[in-house]
Amino acid sequence: MIYRLVWQATMAAHFLVIAYIALGGFLAWRRPRLIWPHLALCAWGLVQLAGLAECPLTALENWGRAGAGERGLLPGGFIDTYIEGVVYPEAYVWHVRCAVIAVVLVSWAGLAIRIRRRRTRPGRTTGTPAAPEPGALR
């Protein structure tokens, strides 16, 4: 029972990590400090795409599956097992990867614009309140 729980919790964590890699930059628009874990996970995603290391979540899920008497993930890991051929056809792998990269880059560009606007707003750069507009109620 515990092996099945480990396997399923790891599968859910995998989905969350992939969603955060794709969309975490947009969360940083609201909470800029979230960009740091997002950048780290994006770097890890590039390591995974290059095949330089095995994902620890994949290893943990395979361990839970083996303990539960199930077969492990496909050789390509989590994405090959649950996403490619299920969410989108395998023929579109590079299209989907390019689309995800584009979404991430758009989120980063949007974050850079938002940060720049915050820094250039009157009253925000020095920490003093902005002067009231003429005719504003006091």
In short:
This protein is an all-alpha fold and 138 residues long. The protein has helices at 2-30, 35-50, 56-67, 78-83, 93-120.
Description:
The chain has 138 residues and is mainly α. It has one domain (2-120). 66% of the residues lie in helices and 0% in strands. The protein has helices at residues 2-30, 35-50, 56-67, 78-83, 93-120. Helix 1 packs antiparallel against helix 3. The chain starts with a helix and ends in an 18-residue tail after the last helix. The model has no long low-confidence stretch (mean pLDDT 88).
Helix and strand pattern: HHHHH
Count of discrete structural domains: 1
Uncertain stretches: none
Task: Give the distance, in angstroms, between the N- and C-terminal Cα atoms.
Answer: 66 Å
Number of helices: 5
DSSP summary, beta strand count: 0
Protein name: DUF2784 domain-containing protein
InterPro entries: DUF2784
Transmembrane segments: 6-27, 34-53, 92-113
Pfam family, one: DUF2784
List keywords for this structure.
single chain; 138 residues; mainly alpha
Topology:
Blueprint: H1 2-30, H2 35-50, H3 56-67, H4 78-83, H5 93-120
